């Protein structure tokens, strides 16, 4: 098993060499065999004693240099200059068959110098939660970090109650975040602007080489980097919106440069359509509500732009002007991706005029909100309506007259059910089923987890026997609450 130490070599200012805490009694809970094979790692080896020590950071391959990565970030709008991997390690990079690199990263591997008083550990439930939701996102076709394995450590972790501890092995295109750039840009205040500028340039070049090699040939490569990140994030957040995903903690340290979804803490899928949907117990103002995600992404990108200004243009005013133009472009790209995606969800052909499609979409969403209709099953049922059976969709509305009027407008446009079924998932990780799987796994029963993973791994293919994975939570499940940093 060969691991590169590219990040540690190129950006030593951002890397602290560190070791994982020994796992007293490692036990494999879940292994992503297809992903392991794709990475050229033998799944059989990962399952054996050596493999488990590797997956918990206790067996470090020759030449690998595990590090905790430094980053800063705006958390709920407030700047924190030093966050970093408090309970995580970058073990190194794996070279894939196509020549690109993937980070192998551990979460829950023990406290690092960035721990800020935290214990450095993670519990089985939240690590399996990240495994389920990230793999569901991947199956939905949404860029995301992947989950390779969750290993129970045999250590008890103290939360409200003692819980079994675990380590998640995560795979990502990289762990560069907006907060990584903020960490370097802010270091200029202490280390002198020249030092900061040099590291910043090196960081930006590292990001370009890893993610956007085309930007290297641009006239203004750092502006090209900014534009590329903006495009990736516009596409990403639009995809979140189209499946009802609420990230829950879009702090700048949780926004990647690669455009992959990262850090599945308080995230959850919206059921009844409502732009104000919030699940996170600490997001009392709804900053990261479903409907706010596009504007928050723009806000985060503005923070990213601030870090790049000295590289974009020597003249500060000119740099601001250029970056502002780019940001306007980001908003337009996101809106356009949303409109295109929403057309596909409704099965509308490309030649349906915008003046017809846009009000139809908006009126449809207003009806969903008014009748508290489950977002995911509505679109799937609408596919059946496109095939001639409107009753399942119709039955979801209290305002029948309103829906019938809308339905007639939509049907007149000859929607295509095949397009709809390709983009409207039937199986998403429903909140009550995720909780059920985590609770069972924490108690030692992995069966519900296995079944849920099976359902969400092919989200668009309706299969017999999976009816309960397609339905919203029962009424008595109540209002869903999620938690950060657990
Ligand atoms: P997150 O909410 O997972 O994005 O984490 C935000 C910050 O808190 C990161 O710097 C984490 O490394 C840190 N953190 C979260 N939980 C712990 C923990 N149990 N021990 C140490 N650091 C933690
Ligand atoms: Mg984070």
From TrEMBL:
Catalytic-site annotation from UniProt: 253 (proton acceptor)
Similarity comment: family membership: Belongs to the SELO family.
Gene: ydiU
PANTHER family noted in UniProt: PROTEIN ADENYLYLTRANSFERASE SELO, MITOCHONDRIAL
This enzyme's EC code(s): 2.7.7.-, 2.7.7.108
Domain of life of the native organism: Bacteria
Record's function text: Nucleotidyltransferase involved in the post-translational modification of proteins. It can catalyze the addition of adenosine monophosphate (AMP) or uridine monophosphate (UMP) to a protein, resulting in modifications known as AMPylation and UMPylation.
GO molecular function annotations of the record: AMPylase activity; ATP binding; magnesium ion binding; manganese ion binding
Listed name of the protein: Protein nucleotidyltransferase YdiU
NCBIfam families named among the record's database cross-references: PRK00029.1 (NF000658)
